[in-house]
Design goal:
It is built from four helices and eleven strands; from the N terminus they run H-E-E-E-H-E-E-E-E-E-E-H-E-E-H. With 215 residues, it is of the alpha+beta class. It has two domains: 35 residues, no CATH class; 180 residues, Sandwich (Immunoglobulin-like), CATH 2.60.40. Strand 10 and strand 11 form a beta hairpin. The relative contact order is 0.23.
């Protein structure tokens, strides 16, 4: 049994996203209709920022297995040459809530599973909002109890969704994409932003799991 666990953890370690979001972080509040800033730096893990290359940025909600991008806030951003941009949150995409996060999807490179590389910010708040979450989106948010975004290591985010498994529907000011599939992005928000889990931590966790299994 523990051999399966080790394999799963190894996959997590091999596909850490390299875009480390420095804004927003936990505690950040963006106001609808006002300029807000997203910024990032190189996390030091593979792929490099140059390899991550062009990327799209979304405001999203959900959990690590199912996510709904609510607003596309930037497209074709070269993350290796640009390290921040400003955008205006659309007040109609949801209510006042602290359940939002930024999802970054590479258009240039794939992760070890063959799907687009991606990264996530920590959860942040939006104020001055006038929208609502429909029942499907709320169900995804409720799923965080077992699969949080920007919390414990994730082994099942939407990055694993194939193009044929993607559904799109029209939406005010943007587009909605609901994706469901396994992913290999591993993040932790120990410092307030979604941050790659260090390989040493994974080694320690593997040792703990193996030791417990042998007892």
């Amino acid at each position: 049994m523990f051999s399966t666990i080790i394999v799963s953890l190894a996959l997590v370690a091999s596909a850490l996203a390299n875009v480390f979001l420095t804004s927003p972080v936990t505690g950040t509040t963006f106001a609808a209709g006002q300029n807000s800033t997203v910024s990032w730096q190189d996390s030091g893990s593979s792929p490099s920022l140059a390899q991550f290359g062009l990327a799209n940025f979304f405001i999203a909600v959900g959990n690590s297995k199912q996510q709904t991008p609510l607003q596309m806030i930037a497209t074709y951003i070269n993350v290796s040459s640009i390290h921040s941009f400003s955008f205006i949150p659309d007040k109609t995409i949801g209510p006042n809530s602290n359940e939002y996060f930024i999802r970054v999807v590479s258009l240039s490179t794939n992760d070890t599973t063959g799907y687009p590389a991606e990264a996530f910010s920590a959860m942040f708040s939006l104020s001055g909002m006038s929208g609502t979450f429909n029942s499907s989106v709320q169900a995804e948010i409720n799923g965080q109890s077992t699969a949080p975004i920007g919390g414990t290591p994730m082994t099942g985010s939407a990055s694993g969704a194939s193009p044929t498994g993607m559904s799109m529907s029209g939406m005010t000011g943007s587009m909605t994409m609901t994706m469901s599939a396994p992913s290999s992005t591993a993040t932790s928000k120990s410092n307030g932003a979604a941050k790659p889990v260090l390989a040493t931590g994974l080694v320690a966790l593997i040792a703990t799991v193996v030791g417990a299994s042998l007892l």
